[in-house]
Automatic annotation (TrEMBL):
It comes from Ruminococcus albus SY3. Keywords: Amino-acid biosynthesis, Methionine biosynthesis, NADP, Oxidoreductase, Sodium, Threonine biosynthesis. L-homoserine binds at E186. GO terms for molecular function: homoserine dehydrogenase activity; NADP binding. This is Homoserine dehydrogenase.
Length: 414
């Protein structure tokens, strides 16, 4: 029996990882082909109530200097300790598996290179889509395709909040509180609700398929905090639901468009019925066509499922680097195009005393547009969907309208 696994961070994901591994250990060992076990759990605190309390340690060097440890699950989060620990472990030839998308999005190219140089692996299946297998399928099963685009719902917390707002008329604040209690949200939930978490995830997927590090700073993001129940009602009446969508697309000149923002998704689209903590990722390849991946995007055991899968893969291939790689890039490189230069169509809601009188000017500006309604619409409100235009042109028109009315909402169409 080798006690060759360590877990760093005994929070939501870390405790799930230990629980799942220990529960299925016998079957897991058959899959690995030898007897393996968890030796250490590193955390700041003690967990006297835990059945695994005797494995808790507080000194990172115990793991680093133990030659029996082959694989470490970094499920501590953040880019400070996690970065230092991961570098030291990989430099010693110990494989690291992680759910930490902040770290992969910030330092993925460097850490993958370090793993390759030291004959070990850096795996991060749990970093995107929680329990959904997406990294391995893109890196292996779909490797024969040129991936043309990836888009989807990549944040469980915001999808949970939007579902509660849409289906139960729950307030944003109450839905967020519930998502935090369920262990879905980040330590600082601003990352979820402002689109940063989904941005990190689309950067990881984009880097993987385009072979070059896409930094979150290169990608425009907006979150769900400005969405109101009025917008939800307009969308519903017009046949749409509002979802936070992350996407990356290869353009004809090989540059990329990438963006994270709420969108009005037609109810007929499969993404429209992805609810609660579920995520879905749609991938389009030049051979396979469209493929959809669906499952729980956050939470203790779904995320642990992906972490444990990576641990098993590393233990099966100890001493080998499992071949994920993308090139480093510079943060000021311009291969992701300016989002304002991309064509889109926009839902707009205006507020103002004389807003109805603006209709002729609005029609003149936008040409063919669609006004939408909701029950008991107040007289000082007007909502419409613009035709497909370059976004900066839509903004220029809205800037003119803003002299006469407030631009209460502006949400891209899917
Ligand atoms: N929750 C989820 O559904 C998902 C989370 N993730 C990612 O997984 C990672 C972990 O998330 P989650 O489990 O929710 O976070 P938690 O905050 O629940 O767990 C982190 C644990 O690490 C401990 N810790 C903090 N600093 C150190 C340190 N220096 N050394 C050892 N332990 C430390 C924390 O202790 P203390 O509480 O005392 O600070 C806490 O027990 C994050 O990167 C997150 O983004 C990915 C997918 C899903
Ligand atoms: N906070 C994240 C956790 C999983 O990545 C989310 O809600 O999706």
């Amino acid at each position: 029996m080798s006690k060759n696994v360590a877990v760093i961070g005994y929070g939501v994901v870390g405790s799930g990882t230990v629980e799942l591994f220990m529960k299925n250990r016998e079957a897991i060992n058959k899959k690995i082909g030898r007897d393996c076990d968890i030796k250490y759990i590193l955390d700041l605190r003690d967990f006297p109530e835990s059945p695994f309390a005797d494995m808790i340690i507080h000194d990172f060097d115990t793991i680093l200097n133990d030659d029996e440890i082959e694989v470490v699950a970094e499920v501590v989060g953040g880019t400070t300790f996690a970065y230092e620990y991961t570098k030291k472990l990989l430099a010693k030839g110990k494989s690291v598996v992680t759910s930490n998308k902040a770290l992969v999005a910030a330092y993925g190219a460097e850490l993958l290179q370090l793993a390759q140089d030291n004959g070990c692996s850096y795996l991060f299946e749990a970093s995107v889509g929680g329990g959904i297998p997406i990294i391995r399928p893109l890196n292996k099963c779909l490797a024969g395709n040129e991936i043309q685009q990836i888009s989807g719902i990549l944040n469980g917390t915001t999808n949970f909040i939007l579902t509660k707002m849409i289906k139960d008329q729950m307030s944003f604040e109450d839905a967020l509180k519930l998502a935090q209690q369920l262990g879905y949200a980040e330590a600082d939930p601003t990352a979820d609700v402002e689109g940063e978490d989904a941005c990190r995830k689309i950067c990881i997927l984009g880097s993987l398929v385009y072979g070059k590090h896409i930094y979150p700073e290169m990608v425009h993001k907006s979150g769900i905090t400005r969405i109101t129940l009025d917008d939800v009602e307009y969308a519903d009446n017009a046949g749409y639901v509002i979802k936070l969508i992350a996407s990356v697309k290869r353009l004809e000149d090989n540059s990329l468009s990438a963006i994270v923002c709420p969108r009005l998704v037609p109810k007929s689209n499969m993404l429209a019925s992805v609810d609660d903590v579920y995520n879905a990722v749609s991938v389009t390849g030049d051979g396979v066509g469209d493929v959809l991946f669906y499952g729980q995007g956050a939470g203790k055991l779904p995320t642990a499922s992906a972490v444990v899968g990576d641990i098993i893969d590393c233990l099966r291939h100890n001493g080998r680097s499992l071949g994920i790689h993308w090139e480093e890039s510079k943060k000021d490189e311009k291969f992701v195009v300016r989002y304002k230069d991309i064509n889109c169509s926009m839902y707009v809601r205006l507020k103002g005393d004389d807003v109805q009188a603006l209709k002729p000017s609005i029609s003149e500006m936008f040409g063919k547009l669609m006004y939408i309604e909701r029950a008991n619409r107040p007289d000082d409100e007007l909502a419409f969907i613009t035709p497909n235009m370059v976004e900066s042109d839509i903004d220029a028109n809205l800037a003119i309208l803003s002299h006469s009315a407030e631009i209460a909402s502006k949400i891209r169409m899917f």
